[in-house]
Please model this.
Amino acid sequence: MADVRASIDLALPPDAAFDALVEELTNALVRLGIRFEPGPGGSVAEGAFEVGKVVEWQPGLGLALEWRHASWSPGVVTEMRLRLEPVGSGTRATLQHRGWDAAIGDPVELAGWFAGQVLAPLLSASSPGAFGDWFTDRRARRPSGPAARATYLHPLYHLPNFRVILAELALTRDDHLLDVGCGGGAFLSAALHSGCRAAGVDHSAEMVRVAREANREALDAGRLDVREGDAASLPFADGTFTCAAMTGVLGFLPDPVAVFAEVRRVLKSGGRFVCLGTDPELKGTPAAPEPMASRLRFYDSADLEALGRDAGFDDVRVVRRDLQPFAREAGVPEAHLPLFAAGKGGGARFLLARRS
Ligand SMILES: C[S@@+](CC[C@H](N)C(=O)[O-])C[C@H]1O[C@@H](n2cnc3c(N)ncnc32)[C@H](O)[C@@H]1O
Model:
């Protein structure tokens, strides 16, 4: 019988390794259109078809799934087993699929499946293109995992930008604000102090969860709505908001004009929009390091203004702000304040736009 195995040694105790792998696997499978309900009696489903059934669940030791790989032959059952064993001061985690050879039979075909479906994705995932994409997504473009959740719940190094945007928006109780790419909801929390109503949208399911938890009171009071969605197709009706903000998002957008046009669509007449730019001067600095830098789009002042105008905004201008005083005020450590210095060009760019 041929088994398929994938294995890794983690510098974690078995319980922590088990919890981390189950959580990450659950989130990653959802992104692939597969629902994993972990726990005793749990299951794995692809659409309406139950692919896996949890038949053993031993936190810290492993789990086993009765596995049906072919919806067209639902009677054929194999076994998927995740095993955790202590090695040195850490844990070896091995996922093993037993009986898979029967699904293919011919050993040359089996080699073809293994090379194409297991080895090539492993080699690709460990190459600069896919690894750089994973890293960019994980950290910033679609944040996921415990480190990103903690970062975006308290994004200290983004607070200077938040302060500039709040100063430009001058929110009042009568405002209804949209935060596009709201991350862990820290900007929303700061904005809600004005007494305004607000909504956030983000395409990372984990960020939406963090933003909701961080702003539970406002959510329960009906002052806040946080939705999972794409900035290029905002899940809100025309003319909903009096103002909108976008910070730390612009550089990741493949079609920023389409996103700005969406923002304009959901603004009321007279609605104002403030967006943090992605300054070319930051490329390769700690604010935009590799591998993010080569995946970001950077805009000078003229480019940024053109984006606003092309999206249909009428009153469009770019302002530059020295972030250092805001960084000091926000509690950024003294040693890191030079990162926020205005430099020759006159500081970070912000696009200010208004819908007439
Ligand atoms: C660098 S984080 C900034 C988060 C937050 N605005 C802040 O400043 O702390 C970028 C955020 O934009 C979100 N994002 C990027 N592209 C998006 C898109 N097309 N639609 C919705 N959200 C997007 C990411 O998921 C992530 O949460």
User: Anything to note?
Assistant: The pocket of S-adenosylmethionine is lined by residues 140-143, 152, 155, 158, 181-183, 186-187, 201-204, 207, 230-232, 247-249, 252-253 (CB under 6 Å). The chain has a mean pLDDT of 96. The first strand starts at residue 3 and ends at 10. Residues 202 and 235 are 11 Å apart (CA to CA).
